[in-house]
Structures are given as C-alpha cells and as structure tokens.
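Please fill in the sequence for the structure shown.

STRUCTURE ENCODING:
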C-alpha cells in the first residue's frame, strides 16, 4: 500500500514539474514575442518588410532547431520545450480553433459582411473544390510519391484550409478597405469548414476502402450537418 502511495505521489510530482516547465517556456515565448514587437514598432518604426507573425514564426523555428540539437535536457527551460513539442496536436486544435472563430465572429459587423456573403460562399465552395483539384493534380503528376487520386484529394483538402490571421492584420495595418478584410475573414471561416468536410469524407474513403458515389454524397451531407 505504501509503495502504491509513493508511486502515486511521484507521478503527481512529475506531472506538476512538467506543467511548471511548460509555463516557464511559454512565458519565455511570450516575452520573446513582446520584445520582437517592441523592436519592430519602436526601433525600426514598422519599416521592416516582413510582418510580425512571420518574424515570430521564424524565431520559433530558430529556437526549435537549436533546442532539437541539444540532446542533454539538463534544465527546466529545455524540458518545457520538449513537453510542448510532444503535446497532443488535438489539444492545440481544441484550444486555438474556438478562439480564432470567436475572434472573427466578435470583430465582424453584419452591415459590412452582408454584401460579401455571396462572394465568400463562392470562394469557400467552388473555390475550395478548384483548389483541391489543382493540388491533387500536382500531387499525382508532379510529386514523386505515387499517390492515388483519393490520397491526393485528401492532401489537397488539407492545404486548401486558409489561415487569414496574418493577411487580415496586414490589411488593417495598410489601411485597406473594411469590405476586403471582411471578405477574406468571412471566406476563411467558411473555407475551413468546407475543407474539413472534404478531408473527413476522403479520409473515411481511404481508410474504409469504399469510394462509391453514394457513400461520398452521404458522407458530405453527414459531416455538413455535424453528425
């Protein structure tokens, strides 16, 4: 009984230590981002050609590459990066996707997006299908992986989901019209949903091995209504 209790306490202590190392590394990451923003806005006066999000991305690549070549995890900072690197990707999905959707919906104005609804639907519907088809053609005839058409279409649906955060931020900074920013942001919300539906449909086809037209139509309807 004592051994079980000691094992439970050790596991609890390891869990608390892992959480502490993650918080430490996240605090450093936020500090590094704030310093980059301060340098860009106060010292360089926003004259640097690359946007802030791209700079933060490059900084993250540099830090990750350096730490990946350090094999001795001898301090809490390196252990925090290791814990974040091995995090479940679904956890990131469930944390950040609701925040992105809420931010887009909260900052949207109906009188601004109403004239753009038809254009956004066309871009997120037929536009996504055209994008998936183009990527699939490249994957089949140009990529050296010898993928089937089903796998290539699934790959195209992954790449067709857009992330307009940096683009919308640049449009706001450059003084572009609100209607253009609203169109891109609204299209991205619809685009992510349609690309996700196509990915789920063709993933089930590839895994399940059934590619009948009836099954494809049924799966599209099922994933569209959320069942």
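FILLED IN BY: designer on duty
SEQUENCE:
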């Amino acid at each position: 009984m004592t051994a079980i209790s000691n094992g439970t306490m050790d596991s609890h202590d390891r869990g608390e230590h892992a959480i502490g190392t993650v918080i430490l590394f996240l605090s450093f990451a936020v500090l590094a981002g704030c310093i980059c923003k301060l340098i860009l806005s106060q010292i360089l006066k926003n004259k640097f050609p690359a946007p802030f999000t791209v700079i933060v991305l490059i900084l993250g690549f540099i830090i990750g590459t350096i730490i990946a070549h350090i094999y001795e995890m001898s301090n809490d900072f390196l252990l925090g990066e290791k814990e974040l690197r091995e995090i479940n990707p679904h956890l990131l999905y469930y944390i950040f996707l609701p925040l992105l959707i809420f931010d887009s919906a909260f900052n949207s104005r109906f009188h601004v997006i109403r004239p753009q609804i038809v254009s956004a639907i066309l871009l997120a519907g037929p536009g996504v299908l055209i994008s998936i088809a183009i990527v699939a053609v490249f994957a089949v005839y140009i990529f050296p992986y010898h993928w089937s058409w089903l796998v290539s279409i699934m790959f195209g649906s992954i790449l067709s989901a857009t992330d307009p955060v940096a683009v919308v931020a640049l449009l706001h900074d450059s003084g572009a019209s609100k209607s253009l920013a609203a169109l891109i942001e609204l299209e991205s919300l619809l685009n992510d949903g349609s690309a996700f539906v196509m990915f789920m449909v063709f993933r089930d086809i590839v895994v399940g091995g059934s590619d009948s037209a009836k099954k494809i139509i049924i799966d599209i309807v099922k994933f569209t209504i959320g069942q």
